[in-house]
């Protein structure tokens, strides 16, 4: 591993969880039975001893597939009590809380899902208020007759950019802590492949993970996650294309069915809604003690909020031209607003940290080659 590690940042997370992860990783390093499951074990086997930064990197590489737990001969009732998915999930959660500022918000949202729900309601009420208050001064037709375009931009531009800046600072702290180097195209390409196909949830041979069916394998979580992730990306692309059409081609929303924003947004919304509903359902089936159990509520709130952005977007489209449109517009924009405002402090951070961990893993492999 790289010599330039900023231990003080990681030190903030030193507590029972990181020490427990150290203990278990040392056992795995001696055992080496699970080598083929995911990227974590080859990373463990490359080293003899581990700093807190190394444990942090391993935690963000772990996809919580749970394969190693069900394969392990040292799990409970063995006295070693190895439960690597849980140990790494707890370090991971603490990592995200440690690196995001202000830390109180990160801790609050990750530990109390109800905060997220409350913010959603506040976001919604603000939208409803704005929608009714500014109703008569809308600067256009369609959605903009309810909420003017300039008001929408002045709310959503900062609500999108500020959380991205906070996330960027958090990621930079993580990157420094794990000794990250300059990122090359080959590092990015190596990391994008496991993101695109989520191979670390495949059990190593494509048989799937053990998330909700315990000893039995299933690819449900992997496929549902891909539906959710690609759905989200399509929705995002749809919004970007709508913005470009508005500013470059003077073509404001709402758009017809055969337009770029709709052709991206409708499949995106469907994938996002189905993916999130499925992930939420799997979550109710899975054993919470193989993850960071105290975060279950906050994670569920995040999945439901994300699903709500997709579902309300679809409903809004279905309600175009009806009297329900203003209400659904407020509900949709309220959920989107809450999603973006809370982004640095919810489970959404996993996308950034996991991607960074996969890039760092590609770098370490190259350094050791
Ligand atoms: C770098 C890209 C990404 C990677 C590597 C990744 C990986 C993962 C993994 C391994 C899980 C399951 C383990 C866990 O719960 O921690 C997960 C859960 C999830 N991801 Fe992603 N993800 C990525 C991007 C995204 C994006 C862009 C979205 C959508 C906005 C998304 C939405 C979700 C949701 C909703 C869950 C379920 C959370 C839960 O069950 O608690 N992910 N992701
Ligand atoms: S999880 Fe258990 S079986 Fe797998 S490497 Fe670690 S100690 Fe060995
Ligand atoms: S839970 Fe899955 S991804 Fe995490 S270390 Fe075990 S086998 Fe690897």
Relevant terms:
binds protoporphyrin IX containing FE; about 375 residues; 2 domains; single chain; binds iron/sulfur cluster
Query: Number of DSSP helices?
Result: 15
Please state the overall shape, judged from the principal axes of the Cα atoms: elongated
What is the residue-mean pLDDT, rounded to a whole number?
A: 90
Give the ordered list of helices and strands. Answer: HHHHHHHHHHHHHHH
Overview of the molecule:
The two termini are 12 Å apart. The relative contact order is 0.14. Residues 1-14 have low confidence and may be disordered. Helix 4 crosses helix 15, helix 9 packs parallel to helix 14 (325-342) and helix 13 packs antiparallel against helix 14 (325-342). This protein has helices spanning 7-11, 16-31, 40-45, 52-61, 67-71, 84-99, 103-111, 113-133, 149-177, 185-197, 220-248, 260-285, 296-318, 325-342, 349-368. The protein folds into two domains: 7-99, no CATH class; 112-368, no CATH class. It has 15 helices and no strands. 67% of the residues lie in helices and 0% in strands. The chain is mainly alpha-helical. Bound molecules: protoporphyrin IX containing FE and iron/sulfur cluster (2 copies). Protoporphyrin IX containing FE binds at residues 63-64, 195, 201, 225, 228-229, 232, 276, 279, 283, 299, 303, 306, 347, 350-351, 354-355.
Explain the layout of strands and helices.
Blueprint: H1 7-11, H2 16-31, H3 40-45, H4 52-61, H5 67-71, H6 84-99, H7 103-111, H8 113-133, H9 149-177, H10 185-197, H11 220-248, H12 260-285, H13 296-318, H14 325-342, H15 349-368
Helix pairs in contact: 2-6, 4-6, 4-15, 6-7, 7-8, 8-13, 8-14, 9-14, 9-15, 10-15, 11-12, 12-13, 13-14
The structure holds protoporphyrin IX containing FE and iron/sulfur cluster (SF4) (2 copies).
């Amino acid at each position: 591993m790289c010599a330039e590690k900023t231990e003080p940042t990681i030190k903030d997370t030193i507590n029972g969880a990181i020490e427990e992860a150290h203990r278990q990783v040392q056992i795995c390093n001696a055992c080496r039975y699970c080598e083929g499951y995911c990227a974590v074990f080859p990373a463990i086997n490359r080293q003899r001893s581990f700093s807190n930064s190394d444990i942090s990197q391993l935690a963000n590489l772990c996809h919580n597939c749970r394969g190693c737990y069900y394969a392990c001969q040292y799990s409970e009732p063995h006295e070693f009590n190895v439960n690597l998915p849980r140990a790494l999930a707890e370090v991971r959660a603490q990592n995200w809380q440690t690196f995001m500022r202000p830390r109180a918000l990160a801790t609050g949202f990750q530990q109390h899902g109800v905060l997220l729900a409350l913010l959603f309601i506040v976001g919604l009420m603000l939208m409803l208020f704005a929608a009714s208050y500014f109703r008569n001064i809308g600067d256009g037709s369609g959605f903009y007759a309810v909420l003017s375009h300039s008001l929408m931009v002045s709310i959503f531009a900062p609500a999108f950019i500020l959380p991205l800046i906070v996330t960027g600072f958090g990621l930079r702290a993580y990157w420094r802590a794990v000794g990250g180097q300059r990122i090359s195209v080959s590092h990015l390409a190596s990391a994008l492949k496991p993101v695109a196909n989520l191979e670390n949830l495949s059990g190593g041979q494509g048989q799937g993970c053990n998330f909700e069916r315990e000893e039995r394998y299933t690819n449900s979580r992997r496929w549902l996650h891909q539906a959710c992730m690609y759905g989200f990306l399509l929705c995002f692309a749809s919004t970007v294309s709508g913005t470009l059409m508005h500013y470059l081609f003077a073509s404001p929303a709402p758009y017809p069915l055969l337009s770029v924003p709709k052709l991206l947004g409708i499949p995106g919304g469907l994938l996002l809604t189905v993916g999130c509903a499925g992930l939420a359902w799997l979550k109710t089936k899975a054993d919470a003690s193989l993850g960071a159990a105290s975060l279950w509520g906050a994670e569920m709130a995040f999945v439901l909020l994300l699903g709500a952005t997709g579902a309300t977007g679809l409903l809004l489209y279905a309600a175009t031209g009806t009297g329900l449109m203003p209400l659904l517009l407020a509900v949709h924009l309220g959920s989107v607003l809450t999603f973006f405002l809370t982004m640095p402090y919810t489970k959404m951070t996993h996308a950034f940290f996991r991607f960074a961990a996969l890039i760092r893993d590609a770098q370490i492999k190259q350094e050791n080659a």
